[in-house]
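I am still getting used to backbone structure tokens and would like to learn alongside you. Please make up or recall a protein chain and show it to me in full. Would you write everything just below, so we can both look at the same thing?
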Amino acid sequence: MHALFRRLAIGSALPAIMMASPALAQSAGFNVPAQDVASAVRLFARQAKVQIMVSGHVAQGRHTQAIAGAMTVDQALERMLAKTGLAARMTGAGAYVIVADPDAAAAPTPVASAEAEPEAAPSEIVVLGTGQARSVSTLRPANLDVLLPGTSVQKSLNFLPGVMAQSVDALGLNEQSMTLQVRGFATTHLGYTLDGMPLGDGSYNNYNGLSISRALISDNLGSADLATGIAGLGIASTSNLGGAVTYMSSDPHKHMGLVVSQTGGSGDALRSFGRFDTGEHGGFSAYVSGDYTQQDLFVHQPAWNKSTEKQFNGKAKYVFDGGTITAFGDVSRTNQADDPYLSKDMLSRLGWDWGGYAPNWQSYLGVAACSVSGTPVKCAAAPAPQKNADVTFTNGQILRNDNLFYVAGDYDLTSKLHGHLQVYHHTDKGDGNNWIAGLSNQGTATTTDDVPVQIRDTRYSINRTGVLGHLDWDVGFNHLEAGFWNEENTSSAARYIWTNVNGPFNLGQFLSGTPAQAQWVQQTKWKTWQFYAQDTMSLFEDAVNLNFGFKSSYSRSAAQAEPGIAATPPPASTQFATGTLVAKDNFLPQAGINWKIAPGHELYASYSNEIAMYQGGFKLGPQSVTQSVWNAQGSTLTPEKSKNVEGGYRYVSGPLQVSLAGYWVKFDNRLLQYNPCPTNLQQNPGCGNSFHNAGSVTSRGAELGVLWRPLRWLNWYNSVSLNKTTYGQDLNFCTTTCILYDTKGKQQVDAPKTMLSSVLTVKQGGFSASLQGKYTGRRYYTYTNDQSFGGYTTFDLGLGYDFGAVGMVKQLKLALNVTNLTDKRYVANFDNSVFAPTDPTGALLVAHSSAPRQFFGTVSAGF
């Protein structure tokens, strides 16, 4: 596999060597007079046949340089925007966004009215997808400035319309609790890419990718495009039944520089970050960066409660006359202590901060002995209001080691034909270790050293290599695009039981040796092929844009039961199945229209069909069942599909941006997973997954986003989201017997009907402040809606001061962040692997509690 990656990488870079010759380089002709930025960008986009987004506030008062002659698009943009304090950032194939240039030594003074304030304006946190036929918002790095440094880019999406991003920790990095909900579609039904490279389906027990926080240090974000309803045809994803998030890493800076920052705060939090840029030399530029993050759990567990993350990002770019070669690398080492999942009953008895017994080993042994016989340890029941089933020593440790690389080439084959080729490789080694009740006999005949505790060891691996590419061709008023994606992936999941426990130790390590027992061991080989073609027609001087095309998708997963490495292989009663699934559709159409009805006003509408690959992983994948269940269910499974219709209105002019969207989605063959046991007991007899076709789910809703800048130093963004996502049929739930549950018309689990958000940002001189608020409505966690958790409102506060140049330091900044400002306690994310038809006693271990109010301070310096 590594040899294949090397060959593909060389193949991607080889055209650059050939095209670097001036005889073969092709350029386009430009003639754009000096004028205001907004007008220049519109004229440039028509001449270059590309899409360019620029907000009115960024463009206001700035004038471009005149350009004329033959040059590449990137060269032309750079020359046109010279001395404006602005720069163009590529957000996708043939798509750019105009942003404030972080490398500008000093932004020029805009031509402003007499009423304009002299202070610099705050950077806008979001840009509407002007010109697009879909609902798209582009998140700017400025949004991360109002959040705690190091905050996950996924969590920063939380204030956008239709979005619910959850995590138990302030930074949004905890792997088990990271969830994303968009228009009723859960994390695993959305698509994710970084610089075009697929990140998988976002699931915790991932089998085909990794989270954005493990792929990209948040300080290196260039932009994030959120398509809330319909993803583009070219996205490399097999899970985007709903929308998609396409992340772009920042490019190397044009000037040499070093940036360092240090954060400290609540829960013994510590974060160190550094980035060095080489600057541009003969078309070559690069950066290397790294961070270290640590924080203790906020729950009541004094020992073995620390989470750490070490990460490296590097990026290199070579620009030549006729193309660009880009290489990116990510190395991530994650070691996280976990929080407990709580039931409604536990919350009422034990409160929000219930944790493990650590370091009190003897008390934990006493409680564990109440459910394990044959040890010298005497049962000592948990004191009221605790119950024995509530008690853990710790709630486990998560380990993820990721290595991710890509090489990409962008080539101007002719003045009107452009190509992109990219290869990537990703490996992951993961583990989840937990203390559980069970007999450890040390492998000896004597019982004097026996203890009622075992270790549950769940292992994961990913080894995937892929290649993707596309061609763009401008013919008259048509912009034609065709592309492909191919990936081969080998993933594995295994669960082992260790019975040699004789005392407590740190579970944050990969255990070596031979486990006593295996519960299940499975390896899956995945093959994915996608092809797409589309045409975008620009009519009536770009007033009307029509696009239509299709995608062909093929995904195959071949699962194989394996014996594993334990002394005792998996028994048939728990071993996962051997079997193959295929999800394919050769014609998935997509069409859209954008109509600029007047300056600043536009209407859009779009339609798409989507299909999802069957999920993998040991919790949510339909192959993670016993052979007997597979033999009964496997042949009846049908791939999940969706039909999406959306339309809307945008207004962008001066101090105001408005986006209004409405949508209708039909989600067919919805697969529901069920396990009768909670996560911490799923190794016990009688536990196991089964899957049930819930029929169709229909989602309807409306979203409003408004960005208003009443004063030069003030931004105020607000959004409202209304959603009704309901099951289309009653659920015929068959386990040992069949029960028909009344689910028709009930709201889908973990899908709030109402969400409101508001972000107020102030920048006056060197001072900056932000207040971000979010209301999230009631969420159900049972299919019959008999149990739920109520709505809640949270606020986050950020304060900062930029001292500018101080001595040797080019830029010195201080920041204070307060998360959960009002100390509101609420349920954060749900465990989507334990949703059930009903929960009459509130006993389902489904919820993570939120973090309390926490304080953080940061100092950063640029050199």
